[in-house]
């Protein structure tokens, strides 16, 4: 039973090898491999950049060029051809895993989820590395706040209140509260860092002032009540005793 099975296996392998020689896999044109390699390098650079700038999150600002390289290199694959056939077909349509297309979609999905497109301006519907208006205004307000903090040092909670409020109000005006990430993730992370700093430093300062004010108010009220109580007791002790006189009236009958 074992020998026939081995013979059958050998025959099957021989037939497969013969068919492989008769129908070899089509070779990929060097023109396609060159654009594929460019896409591979661009994808690798973008992934590395995203990881390097994951904390603090500056993915959008620091990786925009790498992301644009991914888009351009993938676009070049779709434009390049192999004997009249798009090179993209060789890497997508004939590849069950769709590795090239999957890597492209992963890059686009990461950029979209972080809403990085809101940090940059569009030119005729095309992504550019030029900061958008909201990004420019927010960065300007944030820089004003940082400059104030650096100048004020220990008194920043008082002197920088106005710049902090302006920064916070602008962020709330451009952020969509109904979405998990309301605006470009770089801006969200920067605002979260600002809130953490302000809450840990200045909210304690404000609570301290409130405690001092409340304590002072309570002491004044207690002192006032005690004053009236003591005044009432002292007044009662010093009050003179008034004796009532009973007058005996004699009635005389005069005849």
TrEMBL record:
It comes from the Eukaryota. InterPro entries: Osteopetrosis-assoc_TM_1 (IPR019172). Pfam families: OSTMP1. Keywords: Membrane, Signal, Transmembrane, Transmembrane helix. The chain crosses the membrane at residues 211-235. One of its GO terms (cellular component) is cytosol. Residues 1-20 form the signal peptide. This is Osteopetrosis-associated transmembrane protein 1. It comes from Dendroctonus ponderosae (Mountain pine beetle).
């Amino acid at each position: 039973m074992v020998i026939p099975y081995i013979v059958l296996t050998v025959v099957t392998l021989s037939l497969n090898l013969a068919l492989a020689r008769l129908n070899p896999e089509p070779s990929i044109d060097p023109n396609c491999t060159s654009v594929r390699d460019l896409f591979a390098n661009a994808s690798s650079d973008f992934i590395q950049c995203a990881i390097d700038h994951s904390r603090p999150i500056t993915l959008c600002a620091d990786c925009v060029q790498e992301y644009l390289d991914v888009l351009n290199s993938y676009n070049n694959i779709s434009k390049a051809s192999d004997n009249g056939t798009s090179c993209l077909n060789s890497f997508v349509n004939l590849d069950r895993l769709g590795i090239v297309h999957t890597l492209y979609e992963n890059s686009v999905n990461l950029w979209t989820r972080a809403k990085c497109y809101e940090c940059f301006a569009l030119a005729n519907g095309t992504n550019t590395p030029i900061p958008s208006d909201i990004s420019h205004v927010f960065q300007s307000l944030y820089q004003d706040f940082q400059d104030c903090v650096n100048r004020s040092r220990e008194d920043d909670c008082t002197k920088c209140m106005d710049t902090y409020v302006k920064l916070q109000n602008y962020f709330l005006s451009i952020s969509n509260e109904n979405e998990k990430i309301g605006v470009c993730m770089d801006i969200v992370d920067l605002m979260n860092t600002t809130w953490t700093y302000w809450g840990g430093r200045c909210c304690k300062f404000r609570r301290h002032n409130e405690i001092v004010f409340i304590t002072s108010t309570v002491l004044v009220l207690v002192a006032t009540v005690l004053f009236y109580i003591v005044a009432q007791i002292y007044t009662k002790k010093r009050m003179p005793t008034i004796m009532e006189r009973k007058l005996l009236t004699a009635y005389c009958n005069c005849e």
